[in-house]
Amino acid sequence: MEWTLETTQDDGVLHVVPRGELDLLTAPLLARALHEAERHEDRIRLDLRGLSFMDSSGLAVVLEAVSRSRERPTERLDILVDGGVVVRVLELAHLMDDLPLVR
Amino acid sequence: MAVADALIADADSDRAEAMRAELTRHGHVVEIVADRDTLLAGIDDERIRLLVLAPTLGAEPVATVLTALRALSHASPAVVVVAGTAEELPADAVRQFAELGAADVWELPHAVTAADVRLRLVLAEFYARLQAENVRVGGEFAILRRALDLTGTGFVLTDPSLDDNPIVYANEAFTTMTGYPLDEIIGRNCRFLQRDVTDPQSIAVMRDAIRDLRPVAVTLRNVRRDGAVFDNEVHIAPVRDERGQVVRFVGVQVDVTAHREGRADRLALAEGSRRLAEAALRRTRFLSEASPRLDATLDRRAALDALALLAVPALGTACLVLSVEGGVVRRDSAAGAGAGVQEALDALPAVRSAEPGDPILRAAGSVDPLPLDSAQAALALSGAAIDGGPLNGLHGFAVPLPARGRTVGVLVILGPAPLGGDDAALAQDLAARAGLAVDNARLYEEQRQVAEQLQRETLPERPLRIPRASVATRYRAGGAGMRVGGDFFDAFEVRDGASLLVIGDVTGKGAAAAALATIARSTLRTAGQYETAPSAVLRTLNVGLLRHRAETSRGRFVSVAAARLTESATGLEATICLAGHPPPVVQRADGSVEVVGRGGTLLGFKDDPALPEETVTLGLRDRLVLFTDGLSEGIESADPDATVAQLVSGHHRRSLDDLADSLLDAAGSGSRIDDVAICVIEVTADGERLLRSV
Q: Hey, how many other C-beta atoms are within 10 angstroms of the C-beta on B49?
C-alpha cells in the first residue's frame, strides 16, 4: 500500500491523514506534518485509520505529539482509530486508556 | 538599443572589450559593468543569460561576488564564468570558483585581443562543454538551446547510432559558415564539406579519433556551398550517457581562415591553442566521467580502486594510490594496463618504509605534481631500483591527494614515455576530486565505526551467564549499511542474588537509538543493585527516560521484557514483567508451549506505568524464549505472538542453538527486516552449566 500523507482543514479542525505503512522511513514525514499543523491554532485530528502497518518509530511520533499537546493550556489533539494494526500496537504498549482516542 | 543578455564585469577594459567583441560575434548583446553594485543591479533581470566576472572586481575578490550571487533569492538563471589570466587563476582559486557555482573558468592570455584565436577557442570549448553536459543530463536542448543558437560558432551534433554518423542538429552559425541551408545539412555526414583541397592526413586523424571514440581537434580546409574555401578548426568530442555509451558527438567549428592567411606565426599559435583546447576537452570529458564514479562510493577501498582504474590507461600504464604515515608507505590500490603490469604491481611490497628524500614523502609534502624519472619512479614503486620487467624504465609523476587542507595520499602515474605537462595537470585535477572522495569515504567509515562501537555497547561483552541455565542469544540489526539498531539484551545479578534477564527495544534507529539502548541497559543494571522486583527496576528506567525527555524535549520510548530468575529445588522461578513488550514464550520439557506475562506500559511516556508481574515455575529442560518485536513483525502474520509460540513448539527436542537460529531465520523471512534480538534459556540440572552465545 502506497504511503500518502494529507493535511486538510475542515471547520477549524486540521485533519492529518497518513495512509500506508508508518515506519522508520515515513515516521519523520508524519512528525514534520504534525509540527507544521501545531503552528496553527486549530484543533488537530490525527486519523490513523488508513495505516496498514505501524512500528515503534511510528508509535514514538504519535506519543511525542500527544505529549506536546498535553503541555499546552488546552489539549487539542485527538486520534482517530478503528481497530486493526494501530490498536494492536497501542494495546501492546498498554496505552489505550492514556491517549485521546476517538473511535 | 537591444536589451543586454550578457554582462561582463571586468575593470581591465581592454580584456572586457575583447570578450565583448567575441561574445557579440556569438550573438550576445553585451554590457560591461565595472563595479559590484552595478553588477548586482544588472543581474536582477532574467534576460541575462551569461555573466563573465574578472577574478577581482575593484578591491573585491570574485569569490565574494559569487557568494553574493548565490545568496540572491531570485537566483538568476545565468551561466556564470570567471575569466582571467593564468596568473590571476591559481589552481586553488579555480576549485573555489567551481564550488561557488561558476560554470567555467576561462584562462585568457594577458592583453588578449578580439582577433586572438585563443579567445575564440576558449569560448568554443566552453559552448562545446555546455552542450556535452546538457546532453549528459538527459535534455537535448531544454535549457541551453537558446544560448547555442545565439553563438557565432558553428555547432553540430551527430548520432553515431545512425548509419554513417549523420548530423542530427546544426545551429544557425553552422549554416552561415558553410552556406548550406539546414535541410541540406541534417542527415548527412560532416564530410560533405570536404573536397580535394582537404588534407587527407587530417581527415584520417579525425576519422581514427571518431572510430576510437576519442576527442580530437584538426584544421580542415573545407569548401562552402558557393565554392569558397575556408579553414575550419574542428573540435570533436564524444558525449557519453550515464552508462558510458557514446550517444552523440559534438562538433565545434571555428573559421580560422583569417588567422591562417595572416602572418606565418599565426599557424604556430593556432597549433598551440589547438593542443590546449584538445587538452581542455579531454580533461573535461575525463573528469566528467571520473567524478560520478568516485562520488558514487562511500567505501574508501572502492574509491581508491576506482581512482586507480580511472587513471589507467587514460593517463599512464601503471597507477598506484599510496598512503603515507610516519615514514611508512602503504599501497592502497594499484592498477596496470594489461595482466603483466598488474602482476608486477601486485608483486611489489604492500608496505615499505621510506627514507628521507623518498619521492613519495616529497610528493606527500608538496602541493604540485612531482615529476619522476625512471630511477625515481622505481624508488616510488618499491623503495629500491627495479631490474627488468614491465615496470622497468617507466616515467611519470607523483601527485598529492588533497582533502580539507590535508594530504590524504599520493597518486603515482607512470608510463613508458615521459608524460607531458597536460597529463600532470589532468592528474592534478583528478587528484583533487579523488582526494575528496577518499576523504569522504574515510569520514563515512569513521561514522560507521562509531555506530558499530555503539552497537557493541548495547550488547554484553561476554556470553550471558545464568545459574542453572544454558543460554543462547542472537542479534541482528535490520537493514544494511550503517543502520544500527535499538535492541538490547543483558543478564545480571540483582541485590538479593537472583538473576535479571532483560531484553528491550528503543524506538528509532541509528546512533541515537543505539546510544539510548546503551543507557537503558546500564540503567537497568544499576537499578538492579538497589531493587529486587523487576517492576521496580523497570520503574527506575521509566523515571530516567522521563527525565531525559524533560531535558531534551524529545521523547524516547523503550519496551522491555524482564525476567527475574531465582533457583528453586526443582529448577527456576521466573518472575516476568513486561513494559509495552511482546510476551515471552515458555516451552515445557514435554514440548507444550505457553505465552507468559501480563501486558504493562511502554516506558518513557507516563509517570505511573502499569507494570504487573507474573511468576512461572520452570522445571528441568523447560525453556524460556524472550524476543524483541522485530521477531513478531518480521513474521508476517495476523497474530504474531501466536506465530512465535507455534514456531517454538515446532522445535521441540532441537538444541537451544538450533531453536535460536530458526527463530532468527524466521524473523528474516518477511518482507520487513527490523532489528531482532532473541534470548533463549533452558533450565539445566543442578551443577550442569552450558554457556552458549553468538
A: 18
